[in-house]
């Protein structure tokens, strides 16, 4: 029987190339953008130019990789190769989700290192005030929980869709898909509105214990349902 860590390492290695490719593209895009700005006469050629050119790609690259990892994660649930590995569905679920997290963290660390190098080279070393560290901690905590929630929620929608459509005739599959999309859009809109309100709150107003408690309950419920669907209903392709 394959253990969780072995499966996690396999999935991390298979997806790390996506991380590397995304990182390379953001670096190349930064260089091209800086060159275009320079020849456009908008700035002098300097490290500071690359520093500012790199900032938009922090978000763009992160969003792209987030989506790509989510797609890779969902393919695993219905892939005959992974489902035939001698491992329980619970361990496969944990390995798949954890490998997604690890790859995203690797990318974020690499981007943060590049950003820090550019910042130090262009502006020198400036230790931020405690309030800035607190704001950064706020962003990291909420962003991490949000990413984990979205990945598990996407899996729930995907697995429910596969389960429901398996019982429908082909003529009704398209209608069922649109109904599922509608429910997902309404639910996601509400949840993201709540998350946005949470982002806007000052860190001092947060009840971290309560946030982790609510998240743990929701994460456990969604994950339990995902594993149940994998175990009982979802077939491979």
Automatic annotation (TrEMBL):
<keyword id="KW-0472">Membrane</keyword>
<feature type="transmembrane region" description="Helical">
    <location>
        <begin position="20"/>
        <end position="39"/>
    </location>
</feature>
<feature type="transmembrane region" description="Helical">
    <location>
        <begin position="51"/>
        <end position="71"/>
    </location>
</feature>
<keyword id="KW-1133">Transmembrane helix</keyword>
<feature type="transmembrane region" description="Helical">
    <location>
        <begin position="175"/>
        <end position="196"/>
    </location>
</feature>
<feature type="transmembrane region" description="Helical">
    <location>
        <begin position="92"/>
        <end position="120"/>
    </location>
</feature>
<keyword id="KW-0812">Transmembrane</keyword>
<protein>
    <submittedName>
        <fullName>ABC transporter permease</fullName>
    </submittedName>
</protein>
<feature type="transmembrane region" description="Helical">
    <location>
        <begin position="208"/>
        <end position="230"/>
    </location>
</feature>
<feature type="transmembrane region" description="Helical">
    <location>
        <begin position="140"/>
        <end position="168"/>
    </location>
</feature>
């Amino acid at each position: 029987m394959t253990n969780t860590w072995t499966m996690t390492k396999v999935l991390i290695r298979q997806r790390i190339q996506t991380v590397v490719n995304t990182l390379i593209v953001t670096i190349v895009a930064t260089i091209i953008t800086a060159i275009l700005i320079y020849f456009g006469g908008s700035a002098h050629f300097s490290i500071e130019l690359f520093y500012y050119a790199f900032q938009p790609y922090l978000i763009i690259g992160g969003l792209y990789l987030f989506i790509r990892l989510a797609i890779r994660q969902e393919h695993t649930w219905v892939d005959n190769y992974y489902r035939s590995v001698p491992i329980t569905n619970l361990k496969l679920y944990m390995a798949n989700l954890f490998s997604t997290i690890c790859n995203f963290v690797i990318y974020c660390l690499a981007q943060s290192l590049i950003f820090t190098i550019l910042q130090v080279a262009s502006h020198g070393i400036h230790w931020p005030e405690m309030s800035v560290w607190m704001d950064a901690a706020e962003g990291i905590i909420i962003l991490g929980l949000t990413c984990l929630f979205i990945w598990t929620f996407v899996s729930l929608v995907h697995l429910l869709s596969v389960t429901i459509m398996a019982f429908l005739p082909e003529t009704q599959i398209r209608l069922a898909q649109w109904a599922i999309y509608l429910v997902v859009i309404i639910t996601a809109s509400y949840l993201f509105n709540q998350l946005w309100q949470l982002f806007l709150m000052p860190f001092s107003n947060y009840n971290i214990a309560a946030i982790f408690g609510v998240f743990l309950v929701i994460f456990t419920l969604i994950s339990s349902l995902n594993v149940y669907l994998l175990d009982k209903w979802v077939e491979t392709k």
